[in-house]
Amino acid sequence: MNISEMVLYNNSDNSSFNSTIDAFKQAIYPVMYLFIFFLGTVGNSLSIYVFFQPSQRKTSVNIYMQNLAVSDLMFVSTLPFRASYYLLGSHWIFGDIACRIMTYALYVNMYCSIYFLTVLSVVRFTAIVYPFKRWKVTNMKYAKITCAMIWVFVLAASSPLFCKQIAGYDKQEKCLDLHPESTDILLMLNSVVLVVGFTLPFCTIIICYVFAIRALLKSRTPQRRRTVSHKKALSTIIITLILFLLCFLPYHVLRTVHLMLGSWSQNNLSVHKALVVTLCLAAMNSCLDPVLYYFAAENFKARIRSLYRR
């Protein structure tokens, strides 16, 4: 096979890969994004309404959950644009800047969610293991400062996604995929994000879970009283752990494998399809967080029941 034949073969292989994966995305993403948009908009709008009621208890836990709900609602508002892209046959009609904002919003929400969920687990962990100590993380003032720091850090750390070399395309009609020619940059960014944005928070939540269970098993408090006092704390940690295992772990594993293979060909097709599915799971976190609020937020369940009766 001469050089010209090799070039034609590679171009044909890449074209076949692109058409196959585009067809798969066009079948999966619109349905999932619109489903998540509907559930996420209803769930998070209702959650924000409850959190900002004057009668709602003002606690550090509720502050972290308020910020998480705001982040989720901001993200789900971008999903109709994402769905329209795939419904139009992977054709972007909203311009280059809007395209970069879509990619930026996805990752800002993902890592804000990860950090808010991690801090929530730490707060609940301290309530179980050190019930009579007052930590700064459980203080209202420091809760607001912590939330502000998370927003600033994630917004700044995600800023490279505004670069055209990473999130943009030479062709204006293409969008919502990181640039295939930026593999080296993406691998470097992924290595940092994998450690700072996922592994450290995930390990923190696992440690909170293990030590919280250990503290409850060692507690001499009567079973009935212990259940009442620690139910919300344990629910927070368990639900957060499930969200990480279901929504974030598969995506980070598959994204890393996909970037390490670095092949935009049929050899990487199954991995790329799996990555599409795990990205839907990661986005689904935005409509699953209200489940956490219902079972673990202060006075949230009572307010929802009151609204339902009304």
UniProtKB/TrEMBL annotation:
GO terms for molecular function: G protein-coupled receptor activity. Residues 43-293 form the G-protein coupled receptors family 1 profile domain. It is found in: Cell membrane. Keywords: Cell membrane, Disulfide bond, G-protein coupled receptor, Membrane, Receptor, Transducer, Transmembrane, Transmembrane helix. InterPro entries: GPCR_Rhodpsn, GPCR_Rhodpsn_7TM. It is a multi-pass membrane protein. The chain crosses the membrane at residues 27-52, 73-94, 106-130, 142-167, 187-212, 233-254, 274-296. Pfam families: 7tm_1. GO terms for cellular component: plasma membrane. PROSITE patterns: G_PROTEIN_RECEP_F1_2. It comes from the Eukaryota. This is Cysteinyl leukotriene receptor 2. The lineage of its organism: Eukaryota, Metazoa, Chordata, Craniata, Vertebrata.
